[in-house]
Amino acid sequence: MKTLKKLLATATVVGMLGVAGAAFAATALSPAQIVSGLTGKTVTEVYQESSTGKTYGTIANEAGKLEEFKAQMLEQKKIILDQRVKDGSLTQEQADEIYNNIKNNQATCDGTGSAGIGRKSGGCFGQGCGMGLGAGAGINR
Prior knowledge:
This protein is mainly α. 61% of the residues lie in helices and 0% in strands. The protein contains six helices and no strands. It starts with a helix and ends in a 36-residue tail after the last helix. Keywords: Signal.
């Protein structure tokens, strides 16, 4: 009976996390979606263009929308950081530091991706931080 209760409790928690993840995913836009909205291109067209080696920033810049792209990307990163604070994977201080670093780096952003905004700050905005969100990489969270 105890095993059944544990199984039900685990299933409930997993289900709740899945719903929370789906709700979060629904609010955050991908860079391709942002560029699509700014340029009038479809997301598929933006993906095809980025597959040729262009960054999303370059695509936005060519359409004269780089500043709007940077503003919307900053907003999306804030949403992600706020969620990570809520989830407990970042402290508010860490999130604020990452956000301010990104905001400061955007001042020199030309859309080519050469600045590596967010890569060194531990924001994990890509496909994750690797190695379990920094565990084992000397990052204590």
